[in-house]
Design a protein that fits this description.
This protein has 18 helices and no strands. By secondary structure, it is an all-alpha fold.
């Protein structure tokens, strides 16, 4: 009996190969997201722009999610998961290669356009991969399975600041065109992965329509917990992306280290804990409900961000790093819980959930504005604090629903 339970926790046997292939995609988009956090500080120094304007780096790419999420959902509904993955990889690769002609313009706007194309590609990838992974096994273990796959997203997040940050902040690099090289390498790799997926068949998963007592089909927007989950996921994106965007700024302002070593601290400190948090979270959720896990992790992020706001010196830095471990399970867990019981609406719901990274537009801009007006990165952490409180409220609601008295 125990072996059957463990087998169900991992993934259904017939879906093992698709699960392994899709997990590789999580690494690729984790890498793409984490590069932005290095570019933010890099362009501030080399183009002499404000924190608010540098936030356009994140804003432009995440705007791609908002613009392309619904079209991606329609595309995947029509052509299937594999077509969504391949098309997303093509856009991702083309956007990366656009950094090569962009170097001749030496224009901030040219780089922003390339990032927007990458964002559109990542939208297709995530809209297809996230819900697909939740379906590759028992429903009760969907959150644990998605957390396991998302752990490799954390690995990509570690590698990006480590490799690209060391390259961009090298003493020999004095020109913003240097960003073209890592993006060109990434573009070639992504297009090769697209070629692999063209030759692999991903089995489609069929859903049945949900009907009410009168026999009428239940609409997506009748699911109030899905709506709350959509809001919570947006709030999480506001918090996570804004903190990542200004991590290097915060560390440098506190005079703990320079930008080059701050990028390493982001990799080996925050993002390493983020990855380990997802692996640990996936393991723990095989024994503890996803709702309870989300509640305690949300409590942890509210507490750690409060310590950062208190400006307690080195203690605040430790709290900031610990926050990465607590927030690690939030996106996949909220995503999986929000799709729970949606049946035929799953693909469409996924496209709406993938609009949530527009929080990457709102969060960094708000945080940049607060930092510029207060001339302090400490006060700017009020933005992610409010966002984490929203996630905490959602987690509390889900815990109450799953454990009725």
């Amino acid at each position: 009996m125990e072996k059957k339970k463990q087998h169900a926790v991992l993934v259904s046997g017939q879906y093992l190969l698709p699960f392994i292939l899709l997990t590789s995609l999580f690494f690729l988009w984790g890498f793409a997201h984490a590069i932005l956090d290095v570019l933010n500080k890099h362009f501030q120094e080399l183009l002499d722009i404000t924190k608010t304007r540098s936030a356009l780096i994140q804003a432009t790419m995440y705007m791609g999610y908002f613009v392309m999420a619904l079209p991606a959902g329609l595309f995947i509904n029509r052509f299937g998961y594999r077509s969504g993955v391949v098309f997303g990889l093509l856009l991702y690769g083309i956007g990366s290669l656009l950094f090569i002609p962009g170097q001749y313009f030496v224009s901030f706007n040219a780089f922003l356009f390339a990032l927007f194309v990458i964002g559109c590609g990542l939208t297709f990838l995530e809209t297809a991969a996230n819900p697909y992974v939740t379906e590759l096994g028992a429903k009760e273990t969907a959150a644990s399975r998605l957390n396991l796959a998302q752990s490799f997203n954390g690995l990509g997040c570690i590698c990006a600041p480590l490799l690209v940050g060391w390259f961009l902040f090298s003493d020999t690099q004095e020109h913003p065109n240097s960003v073209a090289f890592p993006y060109a390498c990434m573009g070639v790799l992504v297009l090769l992965v697209a070629a692999v997926f063209l030759r692999v068949k991903l089995p489609e998963i069929k859903h049945e329509a949900e009907v009410d007592k009168a026999g009428k089909q239940v609409g997506l927007w009748s699911h109030k917990l899905f709506i709350f989950g959509l809001i919570a996921l947006f709030a999480y994106e506001v918090a996570e992306i804004s903190i990542n965007s200004f991590f290097i700024n915060y560390v440098v302002e506190q005079q703990w280290m320079d930008a080059r070593y701050a990028s390493l601290a982001l990799s080996f400190g925050g993002l390493s804990l983020f990855m380990l948090g997802r692996f640990a979270g996936s393991w723990i959720m095989r024994r503890v409900s996803a709702e309870r896990m989300l509640f305690w992790c949300a409590t942890g992020t509210v507490c750690t961000t409060t310590v950062v706001l208190l400006d307690a010196g080195a203690v605040s830095f430790v709290a900031l790093l610990c926050g990465y471990a607590f927030e690690a399970i939030m996106f996949p867990t909220i995503f999986a819980l929000s799709l729970k019981g949606l049946g035929i609406h799953t693909k469409r719901a996924s496209s709406f959930l993938m609009m949530s990274p527009v929080g990457g537009v709102v969060g960094p801009l708000l945080m940049g504005l607060v930092a510029d007006h207060t001339e302090s990165m400490v006060w700017a952490f009020a933005v992610p604090w409010v966002a984490y409180v929203v996630v905490w409220l959602y987690a509390r609601k889900m815990l109450a629903v799953s454990s009725p008295r």
